[in-house]
Amino acid sequence: MPLVTFLPDNRTVNVKSGISVLSAALKNRIPIRTRCSGQASCLMCKVLVADETSKAALSAPNSREERRLGDKLDQGYRLACQALIHSDATITIPEDPLKAIIRAKLANMEQEDLW
C-alpha cells in the first residue's frame, strides 16, 4: 500500500494503489476543495506534485487533465480527481484562496495595531 504525505499538514496515510488523490484525501479527512465531484470540470482540486519521485508515483495525465491544466502541468500541478496513486508520493494542497485573503487581511490588521 502506497504511503502518501499531504502537505502543508504533513499527514502521511496508507492508501490503496490506483485510488485518486482526491478520494485518498477525502477518505482520510484531508480537505481538498471540489465542486464537480471528480469530473475534472471545476479545477478546484488542483494539487502540487513538485518532486520527480512523486510525479512518477502518479498516473500520467489523461487528455481531459491536459486540456484543463495546460501549462500548469509543467509546473507540477495535477487535478486530484484525475491523478491516480501507484506508489509513495508527497502532495501539496494549495491554500484555499479565500482563506489566503482572510489570513493576509488579519496579518495586515495585526501590523497596523503594532504601530
Give a structural overview:
The structure is a single chain. The protein has four helices and five strands; from the N terminus they run E-E-H-E-H-H-E-E-H. The strands form two sheets. The protein has a three-stranded mixed beta sheet with strand order 2-1-5. A two-stranded antiparallel ribbon has the order 3-4. The protein starts with a strand and ends with a helix. The protein is 33% helix and 17% strand.
List the helices and strands and how they pair.
Elements: E1 3-7, E2 11-14, H1 21-27, E3 46-48, H2 52-57, H3 63-69, E4 77-79, E5 89-92, H4 97-114
Parallel strand pairs: 1-5
Antiparallel strand pairs: 1-2, 3-4
In quaternary terms, these chains amount to single chain
Question: What's the total helix number?
Answer: 4
**Average of the residue pLDDT scores:** 91
Q: What is the alpha-carbon Rg in Å? A: 16 Å
| Low-pLDDT windows of residues | none
What is the terminal separation in angstroms? 53 Å
Query: Structural class of the helices, strands and pairings?
Result: alpha+beta
Helical content (DSSP H or I, runs of 4+): 25-40%
The strand line-up of the biggest sheet is 2-1-5
Q: Strand share of the residues?
A: 15-25%
Main sheet makeup = 3 strands, mixed
Compute the number of strand runs. 5
Specify the overall morphology: globular
